[in-house]
Amino acid sequence: MSSFPGRGLPTLHTQSQSEASHHTETCNVVIFGETGAGKSSLINLVAGTQTALTSCDAMGCTTETNVYDVLIQNRTLKVKLFDTVGLGEGPEGKVPDKDARRVLKKLLRDLMKQTDIHLLMYCVRGVRATKALCRNYDLIRSEVKERVPIVLVATSLEDKGPEMEEWWKDNERSISDFGMTFAGHACVTTATIDEYAGDKLKRRRKQSYHAVCQLIEQYRLLERVQTPLLDVGRWLHSTIQQVSTMAPRYVVLGYSSCPYFTIIDEQEKA
């Protein structure tokens, strides 16, 4: 496991060590957002178990970066989910905002140096989009530039009507006006299903699971397509450079309107 400086080493949790060892393809997903936004609950949604510690109070429950290995895409794609420290806590919080931002920036820099980040998930509570969302977005964008896609996941939408997607329709314009651009989005609920859960909540949680997994899968697929194309592009560029140094160079003598002109091979002339 890689070491990421900050408030100790990330804690690694896996669904099954033996099962995960058979899957060599890994997608690294970093989840970030304010304290109480539902990042740990989002981890549990994707994992399908209550793996990550959650809290319902305003104080964050994640005090260090935790890493969870889960399998999606019919259990053929291993996803490494990075559950980061919540942003926005005051000086008296478990991890003050200044420290949380420092730890997150260092994690991103180390990941991009040591391995790679395939996707960044900005987790926000499903309330009205405000200018405050920009602060965390700008922090991440300044670190990764355009190298890593950022997607938005709005949580706590179990009671949103008529459908959870309505949140995006209500806030898309404001998000754009604030200067935030996302490569994709998912409107979800991470509410726990118990024996008293109704059919509507069960259906919405299932939709939420598929929506989040689809975000991960589509950007992993995009990278699969882009990587071979980049390799082909590098090969073509190298080949063209080699050919350009070997091929004869010609000079055309005469006027463009003249039907008679002379072609001279400069290499032969030399």
Automatic annotation (TrEMBL):
GO terms for biological process: tRNA methylation; tRNA wobble uridine modification. One of its GO terms (cellular component) is cytosol. GO terms for molecular function: GTP binding; hydrolase activity. Keywords: Hydrolase. CDD domains: Ras_like_GTPase (cd00882). Residues 1-21 are annotated as: Disordered. SUPFAM superfamilies: P-loop containing nucleoside triphosphate hydrolases. Pfam families: MMR_HSR1. InterPro entries: GTP-bd (IPR006073), P-loop_NTPase (IPR027417), Sigma_54_int_dom_ATP-bd_1 (IPR025662). Residues 28-154 form the G domain. The keyword NADP does not apply. Gene3D superfamilies: P-loop containing nucleotide triphosphate hydrolases (3.40.50.300). PANTHER family: TRNA MODIFICATION GTPASE GTPBP3, TRNA MODIFICATION GTPASE GTPBP3, MITOCHONDRIAL. This is P-loop containing nucleoside triphosphate hydrolase protein.
